[in-house]
Design goal:
CATH topology of the largest domain: Aspartate Aminotransferase, domain 2
CATH class of the largest domain: Alpha Beta
Number of helices: 14
Order of helices and strands: HHEHEHEHEHEEEEEHHHHEHHEHEH
Number of domains: 2
CATH architecture of the largest domain: 3-Layer(aba) Sandwich
Structural class: alpha/beta
Number of strands: 12
Bound molecules: pyridoxal-5'-phosphate
Largest sheet: 8 strands, mixed
Mean pLDDT: 97
Shape: globular
CATH superfamily of the largest domain: Type I PLP-dependent aspartate aminotransferase-like (Major domain)
Strand order of the largest sheet: 1-9-8-5-4-2-3-11
């Protein structure tokens, strides 16, 4: 029996030949020709002011935390239902993550609970576009505007999703993308910081280049290259950028395929939803097909379904342990609302296999197995 894994990284076309070209060009460290091509691609395609590749979305979030001027004791509002890096990047600057509950429909931060979580110490809001489905950005930007807060979109899962015609990651002051091998567009590890506000673009380059003005020096804007600010090494090597560029060339095709897989899942599982046996995700043609989940009636059913599918060579996964209930979340953060939806939904969510090479038969096999589980 063929195994259907949860994820399978996919080579779409010219990745290896572009890496060979980068090697032939003799520029292996960062910010060579391929990194520049990627930057231009993001700026043109997403309409962000400045794109900077990083070694990960985690790195991009850390850069955003530095650029926001986060100081020890500052507070940052974010969902508890997210990956650790959303919180950790700010905790590293000494901030307190203030966790807000999610909406039961999209599983994104509940915009109606944000204002009550704001205090005099609040500096930023970090909406996470879960599954590539947009947060209510108009409301979030309005709340931030009234209180002079910065907004960092964790768009790790949201490349090429849109909200009212605008690319996710290009709406807040900052957007952070991931090209980890489990995301839609990949480079193994990889990420990007989108700086959408002109105020931050110059300093972003410096922080990314170890706190030096190296980028300005290479553009001939300063005559000496020196240490001018705090920073670290956040940029990827040209080998990674070349791989990424080959995926970006075919990005629309990759997204279209993933959307089709999500639609096929939704169609084939609609009957089980109608029977009240599970709930399907909310998504439309504006989201990028990043992931597909089902919500079951209980933790117990989820455990049984996982075992049932694994016995049939199908490998679903669940996430996240809510950050407010994790050891580090309890140590460094606090709850800014009740956590009712987060506690409930995180126990019942199951992600189904989803990767470019998944065939129609694979999808049918997964759906048929879920159907049989409920029939038996
Ligand atoms: C994947 C992910 C990250 C981390 O991305 P890396 O590139 O692995 O650092 C951060 N936030 C969310 C919501 C993610 O899904």
């Amino acid at each position: 029996m063929k195994t259907i894994p949860f994820n399978k990284p996919f080579i779409i076309g010219r990745e290896l030949s572009l890496i060979a070209d980068a090697v032939a060009q003799g520029h292996l460290s960062g910010d060579g020709a391929y990194t520049k091509l990627c930057h231009r691609w993001f700026e043109d395609k997403l309409g962000c002011r400045k794109a900077l590749l990083t070694h990960s979305c985690t790195g991009a979030l850390e850069m955003a935390a530095i650029l926001c001027g986060i100081q020890p004791g500052d507070e940052v509002i974010l969902p508890s239902y997210t990956f650790v890096s959303t919180a950790n990047a700010f905790v590293l600057r000494g901030a307190v993550p203030v966790f807000v509950d999610i909406r039961p429909d999209t599983l994104n931060i509940d915009e109606n609970l944000i204002e009550a979580a704001i205090t005099a110490k609040t500096k930023a809001i970090v909406p996470v576009h879960y599954a590539g489905v947009p947060c209510e950005m108009n409301r979030i930007m309005a709340i931030a505007g009234q209180r002079d807060l910065l907004v960092i979109e964790d768009a790790a899962q949201a490349l090429l999703s849109t909200y009212q015609g605008r690319a996710l990651g290009s709406i807040g002051h900052f957007g952070c993308l991931s090209f980890h091998e489990t995301k839609n567009i990949i480079s193994g590890e990889g990420g990007a910081l989108l700086a959408n506000d002109a105020r931050f673009a110059g300093r972003a380059e410096i922080i990314r280049e170890k706190g030096t003005n190296r980028s300005q020096f290479f553009r001939g804007e300063v005559d000496k290259y020196t240490w001018v600010d705090i920073g670290s090494s956040y940029l990827p090597s040209e080998l990674v950028s070349a791989f990424l560029y080959a995926q970006l060339e075919r990005a629309d095709e990759i997204i279209a395929r993933r959307r089709n897989i999500c639609t096929a899942y939704a169609t084939q599982l609609a009957g089980l939803q109608q029977s009240g046996l599970l709930r399907l995700p909310v998504f439309d043609e504006n989201s990028n097909g990043h992931l597909f989940y089902v919500l079951l009636d209980s933790l117990d059913t989820r455990g049984k379904l996982i075992a049932y599918l694994k016995a049939r060579g199908i490998h679903p996964v669940f996430h996240y342990v809510p950050l407010h209930s994790s050891p580090a979340g309890r140590q460094y953060g606090r709850e800014g609302s009740t956590m009712q939806a987060t506690n409930d939904l995180s126990e019942r969510l199951l992600r189904l296999p989803l990767y470019y090479e998944m065939s129609g038969d694979d999808i049918t096999r997964v759906c048929a197995a879920i159907g049989k589980f409920f029939a038996g």
